[in-house]
Amino acid sequence: WNLSKEGKIVRVKDLAEALNLRGGTVVSGLKNLAQKGLVVHHHYGHIELTQAGKIAAMEILQKHSVIFDFLRNGLKVEEQLAEKDACALEHYISEETFHRLIHFLEYIKEKLSLEELHKFLDEKVNPKTIPLSEVEEDSLVIVKNIEAPRNIKQRLLDLGILPNKEIFKEKEAPLGDPIEIIIGGTHISLGKKEAEKIFVVKKETIKLSEVKKGNFYISFLKASPQQIKNLYEIGINPGKIIEVLEKKESGNILVKLDGNNLILDDAISSSIYLEAYHDKK
User: Fold this and answer.
1) Are 264 and 208 in contact (CB under 8 A)?
2) CA distances from 7 to 48, 51, 55, 64 (A)
C-alpha cells in the first residue's frame, strides 16, 4: 500500500527490499493474500491490491497510527521501539480491543493532560532515587547505585549491598548515625556517611498486621534467621501470594496461603511486609 501510493509499479523485488525478506518468502505471502482476495499478483509482473485489499490496508494503517500515537505520545516510548511495537500489534489487536483503546485514549485526553500523564509514567518507570540516609525507618528499598570512592564502594559491595538488591532500613540512632539495615536476614550497621552514598528507590509495603482484607504479595520478612526458617516451613516466604480473609478483634489474622487457612498472631503478622498484588489474568 505505501509503495503503491508513491505511484510506482510494485514487484516482488520491491516488497522484498522494503520488508527485508527473501523473494521466496514474499511470493509465499502473496499467494496467501491472493487466496483471500486481497491482492492480484500478475505472473512475473507487478502486484496490485484489490478493492478489499485497499480497505484492509487502510484499516491496518489506522490501527498502526493509533497504536503508534498511544505508545509514542501517550506512553513516551522511544520512537523506533514505538514503531516496531506498533507494527507487531497492528496485525493482532482485535477490533473490539482497538475500539476500546480509541475510547480510552479519548477519555484520557479529556481527563488528563499529557504533561500529567508523562510525569506519572516517569515516576513509575524511572522513580527518583534518594540516599539511604534519607529513607525513613522501617522501610524496604531497592539499591540502584553506589556513588562512593573505590575503597568505600568495595566495602559496601562486600557487605552484599549490590545494585537491584533489596535492603530493609530498620532504624537509625537519634542523630542518624549509625543506621541499622537488614540484608538477606543479616543485620548490618552503617555509618551515616556510607548510607549517604547508597542511592535507593523505596518499595511501597504494608505490614500484614495493618491489613484487613485482600490479596497481596509477601515482600519481606523482618525476623531472625530462626523465625524466618519457621515461617518458610509453613509456606510464608517472599514472592508468594497471600489472601487476607479476616482481622479478628483479638488481633489475630486469618489468611489463606497455598489453599490452606492459617491464623497468625500479631507478633508474626507484624514481621510480614506485603506489597500490592496485581492480577495479570
Assistant:
1) yes
2) 12, 17, 18, 22
Q: Enter the pTM of the model.
A: 0.53
CATH homologous superfamily of 130-202: Ferrous iron transport protein A (FeoA) (2.30.30.90)
Looking at residue 132, the DSSP 8-state letter turns out to be G
Q: How many Cβ atoms are within 10 Å of 212's Cβ, its own excluded?
A: 9
Q: Supply 100's cell numbers.
A: 476500546
Which residue intervals of 36-78 are DSSP H helices? 51-69
Q: Which residue(s) pair with 271 in the sheet?
A: none
Check if the beta carbon of residue 10 is closer than 8 Å to that of residue 46. Answer: yes
Q: Which residues contact 83 (CB under 8 A, 6 or more apart)?
A: 68
If one looks up domain 2-111 in CATH, what number appears? 1.10.10.10
Q: Tell me the CATH class for 206-276.
A: mainly beta
CB atoms within 10 A of CB 236: 23
281 residues of the chain, pLDDT tens digit each: 555 665 667 777 777 777 777 878 877 877 888 888 887 877 667 777 788 878 888 888 889 999 998 888 888 888 999 999 998 898 888 889 988 888 888 887 777 777 777 777 776 666 788 899 999 998 899 999 898 899 989 989 998 899 888 889 989 888 778 999 988 778 899 999 999 999 999 888 899 999 888 999 999 888 888 888 889 988 898 889 999 998 888 888 999 988 889 999 988 999 899 988 765 44
